[in-house]
Amino acid sequence: MKKQYSILLFMLLSMLGSCVHDYPTITEEGEEGIDPTLVQINTEVTLDLELVPLEIITQKNVRTGTTKATSDYRRRFIIEARRDGHAETRQVTILDEAETENKQISLPINLRLHAVEYTLAVWTDYVKANSGTDLYYDTEDLQYVGCTVPYTGSTDYRDCLYGTTPLDLRPYRDEWNAKVQVSVDMVRPLAKYELIATDVKDFLRKTRKQRSGGKAFNVTFAYGFYLPTVFNVLSGKPADSQTGVQYTVPLTIPTDGAEECSIGTDYIFVNGMESFVQLSIEIQDERGTVVARTTGLEVPYCRGHLTTVRARFLTNEMQGGVDIDDDFEGNIDIDLDGLLK
C-alpha cells in the first residue's frame, strides 16, 4: 500500500508541474504574454521633394519646383507589410501639421509583424485637412493606384511619392519584444510640366472689350493617345493608361504688366525615365468659343524633372512637336515662339 501511495503522489506532482508556465514580464505597453515572435517595426522615411528642371534647348529662366502641404492640405502616408502577393497589415497616418523643410520624417506608425519575410510598401500623397478620404488618387490597392475621376490637372497637390524595401524579420525569431527601425527612401513616380504663355500683353489688348464686360476665360488641356493613369507601387511602374483624358481650368491673367504667365501644369506617371506627351490646348471664352488653339504639341518629360514650355499660347495657333536630344543631361526649358505660325 505504501508503494501504491508513492506512485500516486509522483503522478500528481508530474501533473501539477506540467501546468506551470514562465509568463513574460509586463511590457512597456502594459501588456502581458505577447507572442515573442511579433516584432515592432518603426518606420522613418526620407522625402525627395525637389523637382529638377530639365533643359534641352536654352539655359534661360531655369525654374525649380517643390511641393509642400499648406494649411488646407495634409500629407498622408499609407504603409503596408506585404507577403505572398497581399497586404498582411495596412496602416494610414496623416500628418497633423502643414509640412516644413524637414525631408526626414519618423512616422507615428508601429507595425507588429511575425518574424518572417515581407515587402514594406509606402505611399504618400495629399488629402484635405481634417479628411482622410482619397483626393486625387484611389489608394485602395497599392498595386493599382489610379487617378480619381474626373481627372484633375493644374494642381500641385497631385504630387506623390512611393518607396519599397525588403524586410526580413527571420533573425528575430524567439526574441522577446524585438524592435526594428526601418528606413525607406521615397521617390517621385512622376514627371511634371508647366506651360508658360509669353503673349500676355497681346492677349490683354485683344480681349479688352470682353474683359471689360466681366467675361472669363478657361483653358482646356487634352491628351493625345494613351496617358498613364494608374501606378503599381510594388513594381514601381505605371499599371494602366487611358485615352481621351482632359481637364479644364480657369485662365488667370496678370494685369500688373507681366509679359508671361503660367496657364497650366500637370504630373504624369512615368514608365521608364524619358518620354513625351502630346497635348492640345484651347483658350475659350465663357460661351465656349475658342479664341486660341495649340494642337499636336509634344512635351518631353523625365521622371522627377520639371519641363517648362514657353510659347504664344494665348493668341496664336500652332502645330507640330519638339525634337528631343536623346543624349541630353540636365534641364528642359523649351521656347517655342520660333515655331509659331
From TrEMBL:
Keyword Signal in record: yes
InterPro entries: DUF6562 (IPR046692)
One protein family per Pfam: DUF6562
Tagged with keyword Lipoprotein: no
Range of residues in the leader sequence: 1-20
Listed transmembrane segments: none
Domain of life: Bacteria
PROSITE patterns recorded: PROKAR_LIPOPROTEIN
Keyword annotations: Signal
Name recorded for this polypeptide: DUF6562 domain-containing protein
Lineage: Bacteria, Pseudomonadati, Bacteroidota, Bacteroidia, Bacteroidales
